[in-house]
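Quick question: what would this complex look like in 3D?
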Amino acid sequence: MSGRDWTRREWLGAATAGAALGPAAWSRAAGKGPRGRAEACIMLWLGGGPAQIDTFDPKRKGDGKKVAGSYYDKIPTAVRDVELCSHLPKLADRLDRCAVVRTLHHDVIDEHGAATNIVHTGRPTSETIAYPSVGSVVAHERGAAAEGVPAYVVIGYPNVSRGPGFLGSKAGYIYLTDTQAGPTGLTPPARLSDESKRRRERLLEAYRGDFAKRHSGEPTAVDYVEASREAARLAGPAFRSVFDLASEPASLREGYGGEFGQRCLLARRLVESGVRFVEVAHNLNFVNGTGWDTHNAGQLHQHELIIELDNALSALIDDLERRKKLDTTLIVVAGEFGRPPEFDAGGGRGHQSTAFSALLAGGGLATGKAIGRTDDLAKTIAERPVSIPDFHATIHSALGIDPDKELRTSDGRPVPITDHGKPIAELFT
Amino acid sequence: MRHFVGIVALFAPGWVFSGEVAVGAGGEPARVEIVEGLPEKWTWETAIPTDATESHPGAGTALIRLPTRYDGRGIEVDRKGPILVRVSTTAEPKAGTYRLILRSRSAARLVVDGKVKAETKPISRNSSGHEPVPPENPLRFAGEHRLPSGSQERVVEWTADGARHEFEIRAIVGGKGLRNETGEIVAALEGSDGVPRIIGAVGDLTEAGWADFVERESLRLAADDTARRTQAAASEGDYWKRRHEIARRIALEDAGRSRSEGGNPIDRRLGPDGFAPVDDAAFLRRLWLDATGVIPDAGEVAAFLADRSPDKRKAAIDRVLADPRWADSWMGYWQDVLAENPGLLKPTLNNTGPFRRFLHAAMLDNLPIDRFVTDLVRMDGSRLGGGPAGFAMATQNDAPMAAKAQVLAKAFLAADLKCARCHDAPFHPYGQEDLFGLAALLSNGPQKIPATSTVTKRPGGRTPRVSVTIEAGESVAPEWNLTEITPDVLPEGILPPKATKRERFAALVTSPTNSRFARVVANRVWHRYLGRGLIEPIDDWDGDVVSHDSALLDDLARELIARDYDLKALARVIFESRAYQSKVVEGDSRPGARAARRRMSAEQVLDSMFAAAGKPFRAEELCLDIDGRRPPTEFLNLGRPERAWQLALPSNERDRPALTLPVVSSLTDVLTTFGWRAARPDALTIREDGITALQPATIANAAVVDGRIARLSDDSAFTKLCLEAASAEALADAVTLRILSRPATLEEKARLVEHLGATFGSRLIAGAKPNGPMRASSRRVSWSNHLHPEATTLQQDEERIVREGDPPSARLTPEFRERMEEVVWSLVNSPEFVFIP
């Protein structure tokens, strides 16, 4: 551990390194290619692999058995010639604020874990290096936008794909699995009285002071003492108030809907407080049994998931727009792969990674269009493929990050943020 | 491997322990006999116990796991399923009416005197995940050890005539698409007192009786494993003895002087001056953390501080080196360095097998380091059960042996070949052909360069700055290419007869003529204990290298060889040196100086907190297929973790609430913050160890600290201190000693006494009964039912229970308890706690 000055900004290491440069610095950032003006990103993760043909890329209807095709009707949207599935009516009305990317692809299909990893990190796993997730890269590059908040929050379960890889724990996330409970590590137990908290903090401060005095010449020791004091401030009322969803108007909360909607609302509040990247998991699999992994009977209640997404996502778009934050907040909706137009023996769908969809909204992008086109059954790409590195490059560019920038591993190896990713040019005009 | 000995004594002291006299004790010792490789379509008629190829001592009519099987060299191997296990004993139950109880996960028969009395059904495989969650198995009486979910129970009447009878269980374990896992197999006899007792052993099916049985049985099985393992390993004893003689000869020839100079070789090299010794308390805490991975027991500290003998430090060093926790102290390190990366669920992320079991056994047996590396490189034995073959595994990796060559070269030769995976290394003397030549040696044949292992120039893209000299698809012949480190020549007697190419690789790495091996290992050990390498970077000696004291490293390497590559012997030399026992002097750049205070590793933080509180983890079994209905290729069972290194994330890439392991997560939350890697796809020597506010924040707020470590529950060692303390001063001293391994200063004592104030005097509630520990409900959610809606709600309830933590003791007043919990919390949160003195 090398000695360095502890600054309050560095509470999560990378926390505000980017913000310190200010927006002007970003437009001067090196590298070619477009740079957007988004300041934060909310990624809604549809874990399990949503069927593009039943959501963002509807085609002719199938029969749920032998005849391949969509499971639902399709409806027109606010964008001419772009249709969505009939269970996304609210989103259809707001599609001018969105871009549907219909030609994502990669070559991992057999396993959710591996596919989730590739969509989060942009690369297959390797034995020579652990790659960071897109959220960790954003946290590392831009830090938090305010003091005293983390740069990267996951509302969902901790897993390796979401992790910081070689960037180390400073680019890691804090997570919560329950909007009621607050994030692990930053939420003091509710049972404690304020008085008890004050008393124990007083005792601790005495130990801190003694230790700092005994080891005043040791930067590592002094750093830890300062980090400990900062930790106490972080767990204080200011950051905790971000989690107080009850302070929002009841009508707004209702508009967002159930637990997933509340997560989206919390994501908006987190971003507002200065968090740079929030990943929200939408896989409360009890809605339809399987979540988005709609094999067999999981298909039967898939529409409930779609409706839940329609509600929450539309509420989020409206809420951000009302607050004039939609232009500077990029919303990403993605899963690890898509699903084929054919039905399995149980009336559900298998996995498909040759062509699948994602959705981008807001973020200052040139929205109101569909990117790429698939064949008649959304099975293969007909024109304009978008690779996962391209998709990541688009997210990074929207956030003012150079997707070709080389990061350094701890042993000095240069690793570009994306593997030759090219941002989708049509979204930056 | 159970290190929290003494905990069970604290475990719900109010509960009934009813196994004082075993039913039929004094009869023939129980046996466990095993027949492996039954036909898939076995029948009870074809599964014949007399075909048994193995016979082990048992513990009455209960089996918690199979004895580990080892090959002729002591390497863990898998048995071929289906397996028939016969557990038998004789007993002489008093005349009377009984109930015979049979429990088994899969097909089993309870046989008395050759007659079948009860039978359970074969297990059914499952892959859907859509089964309903089974209801909780009902308790037959209050305080019963509940039948585990997915297990079956049969109860039949039986009349004893007072004569001796033969009791046996025949059970079928494993088979196609199943793990060779027993679950709990038990037959019990329930008499008029209503307590079902294991036949022929001390133990019963009450909650406390079973927990106690499992505790003792785990220790017995581990000791039995160790005995058979070391006995098998002795078959190669002569070979290694010869090798070590050759090694000593070569090393001493090189040295040009004999070792007979006496004294500590480190002291001799560094001279007597300039090392201010650290005080006794700090020395002991440092030594324990380094050699056992946990802070010292409070009793040990008190005795050590009171000891006036001049050689007490030497004696303390002897004690820690004899402690089995020595093995634990090395685990996190080797897991990182060797990229041990098992996945609990459908492993696809460059996952290996759980060869942690091999690593732990090797450290426990103190296998000479050259032999340890040789066994690792041979990659034999069990792949998914914990043997070195698990190291060979690399899921979704198109050139696993290239990956392994790279890990091994970095670990034991400080040769960094990772760039060479895809191109000639720009800053190292290694080409791609060098790595793939090594990979071919490990494969025992030519190795193709996979299409992904190259660098392509994209149309219009930048020109790669690295060169590629061989094309993807080309085949590379086996060849030792690291000739700048050591030539492809081995002295007589090093290579066993009929050695494979892979064994040649192992011999070239570990040969005494390869001076780099011993130097790299010695440098690693020095770095671990002194905080800085004598040569840096630790794992890359061919780039920009800083050498702090090459002569001292030569001495240490020679020491290692002269002591037959014995890691403990080298550790002893280091621990006994003045350099090791000196104070931290910030910025002292002399070789051998402690230039910076070390922060505890993630594992040390977590294990030390639990050691201080005297509590076990009580974590879930690390398995997402608890009813055992899926194959080992898709679901591993890493067992119930007792030390931090045994933990793993539940691989919940699927984000399914039903797949959480709440206690495990509460522990890994702490580990992750302090630099533990939940995934280890790549080898790593030095963890990124920067300080973040999330580290102290996690200790301050994590549910596991508030609800477990600082919670004065009846299974807490702190509660015991509170109940027994003669005065507030004594309590302040005792709690400080337990957490910081030193007496409290006068000032600290005064502060704590004042904090407790009047609550101390009236702290006890007379007559109150102790509570049990945190009661996670019995697990019912498994892969087979995790997609059922109830699975999610059950696991979410479980998360809430775990957040609540251990129920507080009712024997202390709430006013005192609150104050005292604040004291414990502040001590565990004090920055001093996380630093190694």
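Answer marked as accepted. Residues 1-29 of chain A have pLDDT under 50 and may be disordered.
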